[in-house]
Amino acid sequence: MWQPYDAIKLEALDSQRKTVTLDDFRGKNVVLIFYLDEECVHCVEQLIAIKNRINDFLGSRTEIVAISSATPKKLVSSEKMASLSIRPISDLDHANAKRFHSYDEFEEMELHSTILIDGRGKVRWTRTGGDPFMDLRFLVSEIKRVSDVDSIADKDP
Question: How do 62-68 and 87-90 pair as beta strands?
């Protein structure tokens, strides 16, 4: 039977070159989105769709983190990313994409991935490859389900 498992180490840089890890989000759910680039139309569509439902995520103690190989400098200067109200982080050498299986070694390129990590650092759901994941209603309901299960588990002695 499938069980949630410990998330792999995340260590990336934000736009101010500060290190970002999953421990920074302990106690909150994290939706980690690996996107190709701000020039990828599909990636931007996904991020805009999330921005349009951001209150659904924030109301569930959930942080949205968008990770790409863009440099911290590019993240600072990106008007597209600034307008999204989603925290972008930089994976310069693709190390995080590789650890999270969001990198195609053969093609030497990032893959679209959406990963739900709960407040305890456990991977609860993931989708990698193909187009960016756009069924946000499902994702929000999965976050609620995970939060409800965690709430019950916290009450058990």
Answer: parallel
